């Protein structure tokens, strides 16, 4: 890397450039502000007195999901209203109504909306971001800035210029009936910081943000929609807490452009008893304008709320709000009366006339700056899709995901780490329908699910209580909640009693999809081993909490408020410990490029390269592509799915033998720098005595590529010197002149159709080999010739490594791997001899063997040598699905760490993932295949695979590769050998490596061309 040295001259130039850019921006802003002032002054001069007053009024367009007010058009024409504010409705209908009203308006309208958590708060079919309390739990504030930017894009697409957000109330009262989940939390500094990021995202991108509810609605237990709440805090406390976020937003660059004043009785600020702050001159002008120097738009809360309307006549409330210093009067009850009252006051009071001039010009000024003055009609074409861009949903999802908060975790119960399978119950409390939590959880751990709907009967609850002791642990998900403290957040006392009783039955995780204040309902949280606060009952929080509990997502949230026995800021962080499922957007993959993967996979099926396949790709531990294609066979009767297991063939060499050797190396049981004979004495009396372990693992030892052990067990024995090493079936047919190869079969003196004391080794259905025959096989390896020590792929050494591992560790090879590697990782679908553990139908069939086993091979290993060892060998025999293969590759790529544990030593993995014979044109590492030393088409790896990457391919149609340089793990599993192992279309068409290249291309600005274009016919 080149170093850049800064001298004084360079710094002077740099500061000059930066200063010039800043000056240019300031100049542009200044010009725009001057244009806004000129436009405002010009329009103001053209308006009548009533129209100037009308500019101060924003009226409500509709009640939630109701029709638009028919009187508004008349008011627009008569009073030249300042704007309209919309409640719940339909996006297209709203846009059409905006266009119609704006066309009738003399002065362009302000369009406003209360969209605290995005348009989804008001408009169906649009994006809903999390409540602000949920955002208060999120550590990454840059996501709030991103949310603000996106809300601007959505609002501008709808023709909206003002968003009545953010809420900057510091919620210090858990019983607050109107703020609660709408607040960022109880800490004023945190509220200020998060409000600032949200506001900046909006203001810097052209939307008028509106901080509310001044001077602070957080410490109330009454709702200003229904009455006038009283704030009993002292002036000092108000200054220290409620006003702190406003000061932060006023000092920022740019500052917030609008403030909404609440209907509150604040004796510390307004001496008149039960006098609303929104109508108070000391609060609006004295405090907000004069003392705090706020220069932007001041907007009343809705004037038809009971906090004002219970005390004042319609016109009087509007007049008093105007005289108090507000610029915009939001939804007066009676617009004609409000205009008339203000008009009368202005005509007789010069001070009032000055107030009108000031506020009207300010409203017009902001109409110009916000773009409202342009009065551009909003196009409805593609409106819904424009409001639902994938990046909008991605940001919303990420915010929900990052909020999940673990506040209690006794004995490190979370995340679940199963060295032995544990039984889990999931109890859904509050609903009797499946949600998102259960299927996501069960992607990683099996579980029995129980549902208890709202007001479930005692019979149903007692049934669940009786089942719980059968389980090692239980997760209780409290769903269908609400945000109202007055309604106990939708959690009944009966449900609390049930959860308390259930927690006594087994280890429990309480997962609250509710306001954190719901913790106040649980008087003895110690009975739960773990507690998770998920804040809202959405599919995103259900998904994310399931992932946090299963260790597939990082836990990073913190409580934004004090609740129950837990103080604000509580939150236990722990990393993601295993692979998790995500989306292409999460990892930055180009989804249009990924469509090529589907096309190539389907093309392979259509050309009969394989009947079905599984494809998985993960980036930085997130599975962003996970699909199954085709069927188990060409009969098209059983569709392939991602839980079926494949015969992994030579992937066994890295997923089993190599990791076993790495483990033994780190445990100082072996040293790969030694000769293999040091650990396997039988080699001392053979020509293999001097073979180094590195040579064997790198395929540099001169070993023959393979030995067809099964041929000597056929009924017709063949001259050994004429035995080829490939296409054996074709050779048998030619040499014997057999048109029907069925006459060739297993020698019945060596095999038996039933298991017995002498015939114990299963090689296929109803076919058992002599129990000691493996000695004959080992002797054939010992007697085999050695060739020149140059690169030649050979599986023979891996038979020897299996024997060595069993000898040194005094346990079967498969059991060693289960104990030391797979089960420590929580992997139970990487197995040898799968018929022992699963129905054979959960595996995919391989070859229809017409020479040796005389049957369809299904659930037994395809490799002949591995089959003759009972399905457990060092060269083949492992079965697995794409997920578990990817998990093991991820562990290797992460230098041995997975599932919260150091499975293998990082330095030892690096020792094996290295070429030792590159000078001899040998690309191989120790066990691992590596990229070609010089890339060539139609070879073992795709072009973009880095030199750090590693993997392997398998004879049955399998392939996996991991690349530490860019965090990519790729798995392709197929049964291309069904029904004939001579089918080589998979390799000829470069299907596996082309798909691998597509996954790289999804992250490249300039995609690499594929070796051969393959399209679906």
Q: Which homologous superfamily in CATH is the superfamily of the largest domain?
A: DD-peptidase/beta-lactamase superfamily
Q: Kindly provide the name of the CATH class of the largest domain.
A: Alpha Beta
Which secondary-structure class do the elements indicate?
alpha/beta
Q: Sheet bearing the most strands, described?
A: 8 strands, parallel
- Indicate the low-confidence ranges by residue numbers: 1-15, 735-742, 1013-1017
Q: What is the overall number of helices?
A: 33
Distance between the termini: 49 Å
Based on CA atoms alone, the radius of gyration comes out at 36 Å
How would the global form be characterised? elongated
Which whole number gives the mean pLDDT? 93
The domain count comes to 4
Instruction: Write the CATH fold name of the largest domain.
Output: Beta-lactamase
Query: What strand order characterises the main sheet?
Result: 7-6-5-4-3-2-1-8
Number of strands: 30
CATH architecture of the largest domain: 3-Layer(aba) Sandwich
Topology summary:
Layout: H1 8-46, H2 49-54, E1 57-60, H3 72-79, E2 83-86, H4 91-104, E3 110-113, H5 132-135, H6 142-157, E4 162-163, H7 188-203, E5 208-214, H8 235-242, H9 244-251, E6 258-261, H10 281-291, E7 297-300, H11 306-309, H12 314-324, E8 329-330, H13 335-348, H14 350-370, H15 383-387, H16 390-403, E9 405-409, E10 424-430, H17 437-442, E11 448-453, H18 458-467, E12 473-478, H19 493-502, E13 507-512, E14 530-533, H20 539-550, E15 580-581, H21 584-587, H22 591-606, E16 612-619, E17 622-630, E18 646-647, H23 652-666, H24 693-697, H25 728-736, E19 751-752, E20 759-764, E21 767-770, H26 773-783, H27 796-809, H28 813-822, E22 830-832, E23 848-849, E24 855-856, H29 864-868, E25 878-880, H30 882-893, E26 897-898, E27 901-902, H31 906-912, E28 950-954, E29 958-963, E30 968-974, H32 985-988, H33 991-1001
Parallel strand pairs: 1-2, 1-8, 2-3, 3-4, 4-5, 5-6, 6-7, 10-11, 10-12, 12-13, 13-14, 15-17
Antiparallel strand pairs: 9-14, 16-17, 16-30, 18-25, 19-21, 20-21, 22-25, 23-24, 26-27, 28-29, 29-30
